[in-house]
Structure formats: C-alpha cells, structure tokens
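Why this split exists: single-chain examples teach little about how molecules sit against one another. For that reason, every record in the complexes split bundles all components of an assembly together and asks for one structure covering all of them. Below is a record exactly as it appears in the raw files.
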Amino acid sequence: MSEEVKQREPLFSPKNKKLIFNPLSRENPITVQVLGICSALAVTAKLEPAFVMSLSVLVVLAAANVIISLLRNTIPTRIRIIVQLVIIASLVILVDQVLKAFAYDVSKQLSVFVGLIITNCIIMGRLEAFAMGNKPWPAFLDGIGNALGYGWILLVVAFFRELLGSGTIWNYPVMENLGLYDFGYKNNGFMILPPMALIVVGIIIWIQRSRDKELVEEK
Amino acid sequence: MQELFNIFVKSIFIDNMVFAYFLGMCSYLAVSKTVNTSFGLGLAVIFVLGITVPVDYLLNKYVLEAGALSWLGESFAEVDLSFLSFIMFIAIIASMVQLVEMIVEKFAPTLYNSLGIFLPLIAVNCAILGGSLFMQEREYETIAEATSFGLGSGVGFFLAIIGIAAIREKIKYSNVPAPLRGLGITFIITGLMGIAFMSFMGIKL
C-alpha cells in the first residue's frame, strides 16, 4: 500500500492522501459513519467470504463513484436516486455474474448479500456525499479509501470469529496444528452465531473510541 | 392456511430480518433514538414489504425465472432473465416507495411529517430488497405465501426497532463507559437481543 503511494506521488497531494487514509480510522464507514452495517455483519463468520465481500464492495464503490462523478453535472437532482440505483445495480450484476463464474462456492455462501451491495448504505452514502460534488480522481480515491475502511473492519471481525469459532484461519486448522485440542481446548461455537458479530464490532468501537477521545459521543 | 401462518410466525421470530440476517441495520441504528419515530418507520417498513414482496414475486414468476416467459409462446420458453432480477427488483421497490410516499403525504400528513426523510430512504433499506431476494431464493409456492413472508418480515423489523428504541430511551439514565456511549452500547445490546431471539429456534452449537 505505502509503496504504491510513493511511486505515484504527484497524483497524491496531501489532500488526496487524506481521502484514502481518513476512512481507515477517523472517518471509518462502519464504526464512525455507521454505514453498511448490514452486509458487514452477515458475511464475517469466515475470512474467505469476508474478503470476497470487501473486494466486491471495493470494485463497485470505486467504479460507481467514478461514473457518478463523471455524470454529476448531467443528472437532474430530482431523479438522482434512481439514476444512482441503476448504475449501482448494473455494477453489482457484473460482480455477481463474475463471482458465479469464477468463485461459485463463495458466491453460494454469500447468497443474497452480493445483491444487497446495491442497498449497501456506504455506496449510496458516498455517492450522495462525495461523488455528486467532486471530480472523478478524488471520487475514485474516496471510493477506494472507504471500501478499505469497510474491508479492514470486516477482516478483523472475520479473523476473530473464525479463529475462536472454528479454530481455523482461512480454512487452515491453526488450533489443531498447535495441538491445543489435546489440552482440552474447545472451539467456541458461539462465535459463529450471528449475534456475536455485533458484539465483536461493539468491542472494536469501544477500543477505537477509548484511544481517540474525540469520537466519544455526548451524553 | 396453517402453512401461511407458519411462514408468518417463522419470518417474525426465527428468521427475524434484524437479528438473524442483519438486514435494515442502517436505519435500525440511525432511527431508533426514540420510540415514536421508530414506530413510524416500523409501520412504513411493514407496509412497503407487504406490497413489494408480492409484486416482485409476480415479476419473478412471470418474467424473470427460467422458463417464466413461456406464456408468451413456445419460442420464449428457454429464456432465463434471472440475472436481471437485482435491477428489476430495485426499480419496483423505488417506484413503490415513491407511490407510498405520495399516498401517505395525501391521506396522512401527520404520519408523513413524522416519517420525514425516512420514507424515501426505505428504498435503500436493505430489509426491503433483502425480502425480495430471500423470497426468490426460498422459492415460495404461491403469492399468498410470499405475501405472508413479506408481512411477517416487516413485523419482525417493527418489533426489533421498537424494542431497541425503548431500551435506548431507558439507557440514557444509566452510567455507560464513555467510549461505549451511543453506538457501541447499541451494538452490544442488539447482539444480546439477537441471542435472546435465537432461543426461538433452540441454539444449535
């Protein structure tokens, strides 16, 4: 990541860099802006679907941001929601078809959640808040940044849920190879159940806000 | 008849939109600060789900499914348009929400004012599109089953959002650790409510 930024320095003014790095922490789409929670929680029982989901959101968000940003002066404001939905839906259909062709198992695991990228609030939110008022290049960076911010939370949640719930990392049996089962260690089946995703995200928010006092909400 | 009732109860409690599938989380978290507004949003969601799921069912059955177009004639029997379902569903949902918005504005101005921005936002509520996609995935037999599934999911969302709003109104008086205040504690409470809801199916570990 950091190497790539150095190579193409001229395009990355300090302002543009902020677009990528702010959403990773201070303006994280999930823990601060509260966008895109729906899909974030449902696909995090294992690392693999979480990774595929983040990648799909990255592609759709970056592409939709650029397209909307290019069209921003020609879209009538009254019908902009439906125009945005049509563009997002077409991109999601592309992603869905690609997944079905090349990663059928994961696509089955994600079931309806690929389709639900259409109504993922991150995408609508960023289109409304950023792409409608900015040039394509910053909009592209904003899309990448927000998708990365979304992705890393997904991967962290999935990492802990898979490790503690199934005792594996990316289907590699870590706990078994460490020989922990011989000492009476048991997988915590609770971690695989959906409600635990909420609690893990709650804990991430807790840690983030106790390190960054400015994010703490007023009473 | 009993089958319909089963689907209805199942979609309220066991397959609850919020607690089992995390759909509609965004509006669930954003709107649940007071019971009054969540009541309005909950009603709107029941209403929209009760309309869009059957409409999308018809669309799926007679236009999109593999072989659905056979009523047009022999040559269309092979056509499979199911890859278009996302875009068709979202178009139906967006136009239905627009319609509902106009009707509510005309006949119930007070409800319209209290719903405010949330009504148009229902178009991008994942619970609505999720309802249609689950309906497609689970292959319900008749339109009555699809309708009772839609209404049941709406009621499930309604119950969930009223519950969390009531808890959040009370929790204002508790001494929550500062970094957890607001969003953090809401997540954790939702998780606990989800665990409680799982008891309806008996936790399978």
